[in-house]
Amino acid sequence: MQNMNYYYDFSGQKFGYPLSLSINGFSRSVFSRQSSLELSYVLKGEYEAVTADFSCSLKEREMVVIAPDDIHMLCKKQGTEKEGIILTIHIDFARMTDAMAGDRKKVFRTVVCSEEKNRDFYIQLKKKIGELLLMLIEGKNHLYQMNSIMMELVFIASSQQEFSVEELPLHSDYHENYMKAMRYIDLHYNEELSLADVAAQLSFSLSYTSKLLKRYTGIPFVKYLAYVRVRASLETLLEGRNSIEQIAADCGMPNSKAYTTAFKELYGILPSTYRKRFQQNLKYDKDQKDQKMTLDEEQKELLWHLVEESQVSLYEEKNLSIWKKDQEILCKISSKGRKVQIETEPDGTMLIHIFEEGGR
Protein backbone atom coordinates (compact mmCIF):
# COMPACT_ATOMS: atom_id res chain seq x y z
CA MET A 1 0.00 0.00 0.00
CA GLN A 2 2.80 2.42 0.85
CA ASN A 3 5.90 3.32 -1.11
CA MET A 4 8.64 4.08 1.43
CA ASN A 5 11.75 3.77 -0.71
CA TYR A 6 12.33 7.51 -0.99
CA TYR A 7 11.34 8.54 2.52
CA TYR A 8 12.85 11.75 3.88
CA ASP A 9 11.60 14.01 6.66
CA PHE A 10 12.93 17.42 7.66
CA SER A 11 10.70 18.14 10.64
CA GLY A 12 11.07 21.61 12.06
CA GLN A 13 8.30 20.80 14.52
CA LYS A 14 10.82 18.90 16.66
CA PHE A 15 12.46 22.28 17.34
CA GLY A 16 9.29 24.38 17.49
CA TYR A 17 10.11 25.67 13.98
CA PRO A 18 7.21 26.31 11.54
CA LEU A 19 8.73 24.65 8.44
CA SER A 20 8.63 20.92 7.69
CA LEU A 21 9.41 19.07 4.47
CA SER A 22 8.93 15.41 3.64
CA ILE A 23 9.21 12.98 0.72
CA ASN A 24 7.08 9.88 0.96
CA GLY A 25 4.61 7.62 -0.75
CA PHE A 26 1.95 7.70 1.92
CA SER A 27 -1.58 7.33 0.62
CA ARG A 28 -3.77 8.69 3.39
CA SER A 29 -7.36 7.67 2.96
CA VAL A 30 -8.64 9.79 5.84
CA PHE A 31 -9.44 13.48 5.84
CA SER A 32 -7.17 15.80 7.78
CA ARG A 33 -7.04 19.44 8.72
CA GLN A 34 -4.11 21.39 10.13
CA SER A 35 -3.17 24.95 10.95
CA SER A 36 -0.38 24.92 8.37
CA LEU A 37 -0.14 25.98 4.76
CA GLU A 38 0.53 22.81 2.76
CA LEU A 39 2.29 22.54 -0.62
CA SER A 40 2.13 19.02 -2.08
CA TYR A 41 4.06 18.39 -5.31
CA VAL A 42 3.82 15.05 -7.12
CA LEU A 43 7.25 13.62 -7.95
CA LYS A 44 6.05 10.26 -9.27
CA GLY A 45 2.76 8.61 -10.09
CA GLU A 46 -0.69 10.13 -9.83
CA TYR A 47 -2.62 11.29 -6.78
CA GLU A 48 -6.18 12.29 -6.01
CA ALA A 49 -6.73 15.52 -4.08
CA VAL A 50 -10.08 15.78 -2.34
CA THR A 51 -11.25 18.89 -0.47
CA ALA A 52 -14.60 20.21 0.71
CA ASP A 53 -14.89 22.14 -2.57
CA PHE A 54 -13.40 19.91 -5.28
CA SER A 55 -11.81 16.63 -6.26
CA CYS A 56 -9.12 16.36 -8.92
CA SER A 57 -6.22 14.25 -10.18
CA LEU A 58 -2.63 15.40 -9.72
CA LYS A 59 -0.12 14.08 -12.23
CA GLU A 60 3.67 14.20 -12.06
CA ARG A 61 5.04 17.72 -11.56
CA GLU A 62 1.65 19.09 -10.58
CA MET A 63 1.00 20.69 -7.21
CA VAL A 64 -1.85 21.44 -4.86
CA VAL A 65 -1.72 24.32 -2.38
CA ILE A 66 -3.90 23.54 0.64
CA ALA A 67 -5.04 26.56 2.63
CA PRO A 68 -4.70 26.38 6.43
CA ASP A 69 -7.65 24.69 8.17
CA ASP A 70 -9.08 23.29 4.92
CA ILE A 71 -10.28 19.71 5.28
CA HIS A 72 -8.54 17.59 2.66
CA MET A 73 -7.29 14.16 1.68
CA LEU A 74 -4.42 13.15 -0.64
CA CYS A 75 -4.26 9.56 -1.79
CA LYS A 76 -2.74 7.57 -4.60
CA LYS A 77 -5.18 7.38 -7.50
CA GLN A 78 -6.90 4.01 -7.71
CA GLY A 79 -6.13 1.90 -10.75
CA THR A 80 -2.62 3.30 -11.26
CA GLU A 81 0.21 0.80 -10.91
CA LYS A 82 3.07 3.31 -10.98
CA GLU A 83 4.61 4.03 -7.59
CA GLY A 84 3.55 7.27 -5.98
CA ILE A 85 6.02 9.74 -4.46
CA ILE A 86 4.98 13.15 -3.18
CA LEU A 87 6.95 16.11 -1.82
CA THR A 88 5.07 17.92 0.95
CA ILE A 89 5.95 21.20 2.64
CA HIS A 90 4.10 22.44 5.71
CA ILE A 91 4.40 25.95 7.12
CA ASP A 92 2.67 25.88 10.49
CA PHE A 93 1.14 29.21 11.49
CA ALA A 94 0.34 27.88 14.97
CA ARG A 95 4.10 28.17 15.60
CA MET A 96 4.11 31.86 14.67
CA THR A 97 2.79 34.87 16.56
CA ASP A 98 -0.50 36.42 15.43
CA ALA A 99 1.43 39.44 14.18
CA MET A 100 3.43 37.21 11.82
CA ALA A 101 0.68 34.81 10.76
CA GLY A 102 -2.21 37.26 10.44
CA ASP A 103 -5.75 36.08 9.84
CA ARG A 104 -4.90 33.17 7.56
CA LYS A 105 -8.56 32.44 6.78
CA LYS A 106 -8.74 35.59 4.65
CA VAL A 107 -5.42 35.19 2.88
CA PHE A 108 -5.07 31.72 1.37
CA ARG A 109 -7.19 29.51 -0.80
CA THR A 110 -6.79 25.93 -1.93
CA VAL A 111 -5.73 25.72 -5.59
CA VAL A 112 -4.22 23.23 -8.04
CA CYS A 113 -1.12 24.43 -9.92
CA SER A 114 0.55 23.14 -13.07
CA GLU A 115 1.94 24.35 -16.39
CA GLU A 116 -1.66 24.78 -17.53
CA LYS A 117 -3.41 25.86 -14.33
CA ASN A 118 -2.31 28.97 -12.39
CA ARG A 119 0.99 28.89 -14.28
CA ASP A 120 2.57 32.09 -12.91
CA PHE A 121 1.73 31.03 -9.36
CA TYR A 122 3.11 27.53 -10.06
CA ILE A 123 6.43 28.76 -11.49
CA GLN A 124 7.08 31.14 -8.62
CA LEU A 125 6.39 28.46 -6.01
CA LYS A 126 8.57 25.91 -7.81
CA LYS A 127 11.49 28.34 -7.92
CA LYS A 128 11.38 28.89 -4.16
CA ILE A 129 10.92 25.18 -3.45
CA GLY A 130 14.00 24.53 -5.60
CA GLU A 131 16.01 27.02 -3.53
CA LEU A 132 14.89 25.32 -0.31
CA LEU A 133 15.83 21.87 -1.66
CA LEU A 134 19.25 23.12 -2.71
CA MET A 135 19.88 24.24 0.88
CA LEU A 136 19.03 20.76 2.15
CA ILE A 137 21.02 18.99 -0.56
CA GLU A 138 24.10 21.10 0.17
CA GLY A 139 23.67 20.53 3.90
CA LYS A 140 23.34 24.23 4.68
CA ASN A 141 21.54 25.14 7.88
CA HIS A 142 21.56 28.94 7.85
CA LEU A 143 18.44 29.75 9.85
CA TYR A 144 17.84 33.22 8.42
CA GLN A 145 18.21 32.02 4.84
CA MET A 146 15.65 29.31 5.53
CA ASN A 147 13.38 31.88 7.21
CA SER A 148 13.63 34.05 4.10
CA ILE A 149 12.67 31.23 1.73
CA MET A 150 9.85 30.10 4.02
CA MET A 151 8.30 33.57 4.20
CA GLU A 152 8.68 34.06 0.44
CA LEU A 153 6.71 30.84 -0.05
CA VAL A 154 4.04 32.24 2.28
CA PHE A 155 4.02 35.53 0.38
CA ILE A 156 3.71 33.84 -3.02
CA ALA A 157 0.95 31.54 -1.76
CA SER A 158 -0.94 34.55 -0.43
CA SER A 159 -0.45 36.63 -3.58
CA GLN A 160 -3.93 35.87 -4.86
CA GLN A 161 -5.40 37.84 -1.99
CA GLU A 162 -4.37 41.26 -0.73
CA PHE A 163 -3.88 41.53 3.01
CA SER A 164 -2.51 44.57 4.80
CA VAL A 165 -1.09 45.19 8.26
CA GLU A 166 -4.26 47.10 9.16
CA GLU A 167 -6.23 43.87 8.67
CA LEU A 168 -4.31 41.98 11.34
CA PRO A 169 -6.75 40.50 13.85
CA LEU A 170 -7.19 42.25 17.15
CA HIS A 171 -5.66 40.45 20.09
CA SER A 172 -7.64 37.26 20.56
CA ASP A 173 -8.20 35.84 24.04
CA TYR A 174 -9.39 32.63 22.41
CA HIS A 175 -6.12 32.20 20.53
CA GLU A 176 -4.02 33.10 23.57
CA ASN A 177 -5.90 30.57 25.67
CA TYR A 178 -5.50 27.96 22.95
CA MET A 179 -1.74 28.51 22.88
CA LYS A 180 -1.59 28.17 26.68
CA ALA A 181 -3.41 24.85 26.38
CA MET A 182 -1.09 23.66 23.59
CA ARG A 183 2.02 24.58 25.57
CA TYR A 184 0.71 22.72 28.61
CA ILE A 185 -0.05 19.61 26.51
CA ASP A 186 3.39 19.78 24.88
CA LEU A 187 5.03 19.80 28.32
CA HIS A 188 2.91 17.04 29.88
CA TYR A 189 1.85 14.77 26.98
CA ASN A 190 3.82 11.80 28.36
CA GLU A 191 2.00 11.90 31.70
CA GLU A 192 -1.49 10.71 32.57
CA LEU A 193 -3.32 13.68 31.10
CA SER A 194 -7.02 14.34 30.75
CA LEU A 195 -9.06 17.23 29.43
CA ALA A 196 -10.04 17.98 33.04
CA ASP A 197 -6.34 18.29 33.95
CA VAL A 198 -5.76 20.85 31.18
CA ALA A 199 -8.87 22.80 32.17
CA ALA A 200 -7.94 22.84 35.86
CA GLN A 201 -4.34 23.89 35.20
CA LEU A 202 -5.48 26.84 33.09
CA SER A 203 -8.50 27.67 35.29
CA PHE A 204 -10.94 27.08 32.41
CA SER A 205 -14.22 25.22 32.54
CA LEU A 206 -14.27 21.71 31.09
CA SER A 207 -16.82 22.74 28.46
CA TYR A 208 -14.84 25.83 27.41
CA THR A 209 -11.57 23.85 27.14
CA SER A 210 -13.22 21.16 25.02
CA LYS A 211 -14.74 23.71 22.61
CA LEU A 212 -11.50 25.72 22.48
CA LEU A 213 -9.36 22.73 21.46
CA LYS A 214 -11.94 21.42 18.98
CA ARG A 215 -12.18 24.88 17.40
CA TYR A 216 -8.45 25.13 16.72
CA THR A 217 -7.45 21.50 16.15
CA GLY A 218 -10.60 20.26 14.43
CA ILE A 219 -10.49 16.96 16.37
CA PRO A 220 -11.45 15.85 19.91
CA PHE A 221 -8.94 16.28 22.73
CA VAL A 222 -8.28 12.54 23.14
CA LYS A 223 -7.34 12.13 19.47
CA TYR A 224 -5.23 15.32 19.45
CA LEU A 225 -3.30 14.13 22.52
CA ALA A 226 -2.71 10.72 20.91
CA TYR A 227 -1.31 12.42 17.77
CA VAL A 228 0.98 14.65 19.87
CA ARG A 229 2.31 11.56 21.64
CA VAL A 230 2.87 9.67 18.39
CA ARG A 231 4.73 12.58 16.76
CA ALA A 232 6.88 12.96 19.86
CA SER A 233 7.85 9.28 19.68
CA LEU A 234 9.18 9.29 16.10
CA GLU A 235 12.82 9.89 16.91
CA THR A 236 12.88 7.10 19.52
CA LEU A 237 11.06 4.78 17.13
CA LEU A 238 13.66 5.34 14.42
CA GLU A 239 16.54 4.81 16.83
CA GLY A 240 15.39 1.19 17.00
CA ARG A 241 16.53 0.60 20.57
CA ASN A 242 13.19 0.18 22.39
CA SER A 243 10.20 -2.07 21.79
CA ILE A 244 6.90 -0.66 20.55
CA GLU A 245 5.43 -1.40 23.99
CA GLN A 246 8.17 0.64 25.70
CA ILE A 247 7.87 3.52 23.23
CA ALA A 248 4.09 3.60 23.74
CA ALA A 249 4.53 3.75 27.52
CA ASP A 250 7.26 6.41 27.36
CA CYS A 251 5.19 8.79 25.24
CA GLY A 252 2.14 8.41 27.49
CA MET A 253 -0.07 6.07 25.47
CA PRO A 254 -2.11 3.58 27.57
CA ASN A 255 -0.83 0.55 25.64
CA SER A 256 0.84 -0.53 22.40
CA LYS A 257 -2.50 -1.23 20.70
CA ALA A 258 -3.68 2.36 21.22
CA TYR A 259 -0.28 3.63 20.05
CA THR A 260 -0.38 1.50 16.88
CA THR A 261 -3.94 2.60 16.08
CA ALA A 262 -3.10 6.30 16.43
CA PHE A 263 0.14 5.88 14.48
CA LYS A 264 -1.65 4.21 11.57
CA GLU A 265 -4.36 6.91 11.54
CA LEU A 266 -1.70 9.60 11.39
CA TYR A 267 0.86 8.05 9.01
CA GLY A 268 -1.02 5.31 7.19
CA ILE A 269 1.37 2.49 8.19
CA LEU A 270 2.25 0.41 11.23
CA PRO A 271 5.01 1.78 13.49
CA SER A 272 6.96 -1.48 13.17
CA THR A 273 6.91 -1.19 9.36
CA TYR A 274 7.91 2.46 9.57
CA ARG A 275 10.95 1.58 11.64
CA LYS A 276 12.05 -1.38 9.53
CA ARG A 277 11.83 0.47 6.23
CA PHE A 278 13.39 3.73 7.35
CA GLN A 279 16.66 2.56 8.87
CA GLN A 280 18.54 5.17 6.81
CA ASN A 281 16.96 7.85 8.96
CA LEU A 282 18.32 6.72 12.32
CA LYS A 283 19.58 9.51 14.50
CA TYR A 284 22.80 7.61 15.22
CA ASP A 285 25.25 6.03 12.82
CA LYS A 286 26.78 2.56 13.24
CA ASP A 287 29.27 3.98 15.76
CA GLN A 288 26.42 5.46 17.83
CA LYS A 289 27.45 9.02 16.97
CA ASP A 290 24.98 11.78 16.15
CA GLN A 291 24.45 12.23 12.44
CA LYS A 292 22.40 14.60 10.32
CA MET A 293 19.85 13.04 8.05
CA THR A 294 20.87 13.65 4.46
CA LEU A 295 19.24 13.16 1.10
CA ASP A 296 20.54 10.08 -0.70
CA GLU A 297 21.35 9.94 -4.42
CA GLU A 298 17.95 8.54 -5.43
CA GLN A 299 16.18 11.31 -3.57
CA LYS A 300 18.45 13.97 -5.07
CA GLU A 301 17.81 12.62 -8.57
CA LEU A 302 14.08 12.74 -7.95
CA LEU A 303 14.25 16.37 -6.78
CA TRP A 304 16.98 17.74 -9.02
CA HIS A 305 14.67 19.13 -11.74
CA LEU A 306 13.22 21.51 -9.14
CA VAL A 307 16.68 22.69 -8.11
CA GLU A 308 17.81 23.02 -11.71
CA GLU A 309 14.76 25.01 -12.74
CA SER A 310 15.19 27.35 -9.79
CA GLN A 311 18.75 28.13 -10.91
CA VAL A 312 18.03 28.42 -14.65
CA SER A 313 14.83 30.47 -14.49
CA LEU A 314 15.61 34.10 -13.68
CA TYR A 315 12.12 35.54 -14.16
CA GLU A 316 8.81 34.09 -15.24
CA GLU A 317 5.32 35.43 -15.81
CA LYS A 318 2.53 34.75 -18.27
CA ASN A 319 3.99 36.73 -21.18
CA LEU A 320 7.68 36.92 -20.31
CA SER A 321 10.31 34.27 -19.56
CA ILE A 322 13.97 35.04 -18.85
CA TRP A 323 16.39 32.20 -18.22
CA LYS A 324 20.07 31.38 -18.20
CA LYS A 325 21.61 28.81 -20.54
CA ASP A 326 25.33 28.24 -20.21
CA GLN A 327 26.67 31.81 -20.14
CA GLU A 328 23.80 33.37 -22.12
CA ILE A 329 20.69 35.15 -20.86
CA LEU A 330 17.71 34.25 -23.05
CA CYS A 331 14.34 35.93 -23.22
CA LYS A 332 11.00 34.81 -24.62
CA ILE A 333 8.14 37.29 -25.03
CA SER A 334 4.54 36.42 -25.90
CA SER A 335 3.40 39.68 -27.45
CA LYS A 336 -0.10 38.92 -28.76
CA GLY A 337 -2.19 42.00 -28.11
CA ARG A 338 0.86 43.83 -26.78
CA LYS A 339 3.69 46.01 -27.99
CA VAL A 340 7.29 45.22 -27.06
CA GLN A 341 9.93 47.91 -26.86
CA ILE A 342 13.60 47.11 -26.20
CA GLU A 343 16.09 49.81 -25.23
CA THR A 344 19.83 49.44 -24.79
CA GLU A 345 21.53 51.56 -22.13
CA PRO A 346 25.05 52.99 -22.67
CA ASP A 347 26.49 50.32 -20.34
CA GLY A 348 24.94 47.55 -22.44
CA THR A 349 21.95 46.94 -20.16
CA MET A 350 18.80 46.02 -22.08
CA LEU A 351 15.42 47.32 -20.92
CA ILE A 352 12.30 45.48 -22.07
CA HIS A 353 8.96 47.30 -21.98
CA ILE A 354 5.68 45.48 -22.64
CA PHE A 355 2.57 47.59 -23.30
CA GLU A 356 -1.05 46.77 -23.95
CA GLU A 357 -2.08 47.70 -27.52
CA GLY A 358 -3.01 51.38 -27.60
CA GLY A 359 -0.97 52.15 -24.50
CA ARG A 360 2.48 53.69 -24.08
Question: Could you provide a short overview of the structure?
Answer:
This protein has 360 residues and is α+β, with helices and mostly antiparallel strands. It has helices at 98-101, 119-137, 143-157, 173-188, 195-201, 206-217, 221-239, 244-250, 256-267, 271-277, 297-312, and strands at residues 3-11, 19-25, 36-44, 47-51, 55-58, 63-66, 72-76, 85-92, 111-113, 313-317, 320-325, 328-333, 338-344, 350-356.
Description of the molecule:
This protein is of the alpha+beta class. It contains 11 helices and 14 strands. The strands form 4 sheets. It has a 6-stranded antiparallel beta sheet, covered by helices on one side. A 3-stranded antiparallel beta sheet has the order 5-4-7, with no helix packed on it. Helix 4 (173-188) crosses helix 6 (206-217), helix 5 (195-201) crosses helix 6 (206-217) and helix 8 packs across helix 9 (256-267). The radius of gyration is 23 Å and the shape is globular. The model is unreliable at 162-171 and 280-286 (pLDDT under 50).
Poorly predicted sequence stretches spanning 5 or more consecutive residues? 162-171, 280-286
Q: Strand tally, please?
A: 14
**Shape, per Cα inertia axes:** globular
Question: Helix and strand string, N-terminal first?
Answer: EEEEEEEEHEHHHHHHHHHHEEEEE
Q: For the largest beta sheet, what order do the strands appear in spatially?
A: 1-2-8-3-6-9
Task: Characterize the largest beta sheet: strand count, sense, and whether it forms a barrel.
Answer: 6 strands, antiparallel
- Helical content stands at 25-40%
Structural class: alpha+beta
Radius of gyration: 23 Å
Distance between the termini: 59 Å
Q: Averaging pLDDT over every residue, what do you get?
A: 78
Q: Percent of residues in beta strands?
A: 15-25%
Per DSSP, the total helix count is 11
